[in-house]
Every structure is written in structure tokens, then in C-alpha cells.
Specification:
Blueprint (H helix, E strand, L loop, with lengths): L6 E2 L10 E2 L3 H6 L3 E8 L5 E4 L7 E7 L2 E8 L3 H9 L6 H15 L4 E6 L4 E3 L2 E3 L1 H12 L10
Antiparallel strand pairs: 1-2, 3-4, 3-7, 5-6, 5-7, 8-9
Length: 151
């Protein structure tokens, strides 16, 4: 049985219920695969090793097995992830996540990139974006400390 990465309390003075943490084992047991890792490259840059395969999907960043962040690539996984390594000036989320990744890597943490590629779906013959739905479901169900919108 896959384990959950412990219960986390709601912030003080919050009406939010506590959500459990998420362990990479649970994602792996449910169709995610490890497609790469974050590493520090030359001049302290953030690099993928190796680059995940192309195409849309849901990705998760796991630090020593504890999932910290979940996101969705609607078109190309490699392109989306590369924005974390080289964020533009207006990409505040990418800038914030890049700094968190570099901080973890400086402490010798293992930073796996887990990926799921749900098939396209239908709801009553209408198209459903299963990638977007999976990302939202994970953010709502689990405590993911780097996902600000999930807090």
C-alpha cells in the first residue's frame, strides 16, 4: 500500500481543514512515472536530467520522495519544465519555484520529476481535459507546500 507523507495542520487562524501530504509512491502506484530529475548545471543553473518526453501531461516535483508541487503542461512537457530553469521576468511562479528547487538541490536533495499522461476523456459526449482535472484534484486533496493556490 502506498503511503501518504504525513498529515499537515491547517495554518493558524485558518478555517481550512488539514490535508495529508503526498508521497511519490502513491503517484507511482497510480500511473505516474519518473521521467527525469532536476540537477544544478554550470554556473548554478537549473537543468533537466534527462528531459522528459514531449506532449501534454501532469507533473510533480518530489523532494526525497515527498511531493512538493504539482502542475500541468497543456501542450509540451519539456517546454513547460524549461520555463522553471529559465523563467522570464514576469513569470513569478516559475521564478519562485526555481528558487525553491535550487535551495533543495543545494542541500543534496533528490528532486524527481514524476509525470502522468492521462488520455483524453469525455463527459456526456463533451470533451474533458483529464490532465487539468488531475492537477486540480491533486492540489485540492493533498497538502503541496509549493502550490500556493492549493493552500
Amino acid at each position: 500500500m502506498a503511503k501518504v507523507a504525513g498529515n499537515v495542520s491547517a495554518p493558524p487562524n485558518s478555517t481550512l481543514p488539514a490535508k495529508p501530504g503526498l508521497d511519490s509512491e502513491l503517484l507511482l502506484a497510480n500511473g505516474f512515472t519518473v521521467e527525469g530529475r532536476w540537477i544544478v548545471g554550470g554556473f548554478g543553473s537549473l537543468q533537466l536530467d534527462p528531459s522528459p518526453s514531449r506532449g501534454p501531461g501532469v507533473y510533480a516535483f518530489a523532494v526525497n520522495g515527498a511531493v512538493k508541487y504539482v502542475g500541468v503542461a497543456t501542450v509540451c512537457m519539456v517546454q513547460r519544465l524549461n520555463f522553471y530553469g529559465r523563467p522570464g521576468k514576469s513569470q513569478s511562479t516559475n521564478i519562485r519555484i526555481k528558487q525553491l528547487l535550487l535551495t533543495e538541490l543545494s542541500s543534496q536533495a533528490e528532486l524527481d520529476i514524476l509525470v502522468a499522461r492521462p488520455e483524453k476523456g469525455l463527459w456526456r459526449s463533451l470533451p474533458v481535459d483529464m490532465c487539468a482535472g488531475l492537477e486540480v484534484g491533486l492540489v485540492k486533496a493533498f497538502f503541496l507546500p509549493w502550490n500556493i493556490k492549493g493552500i
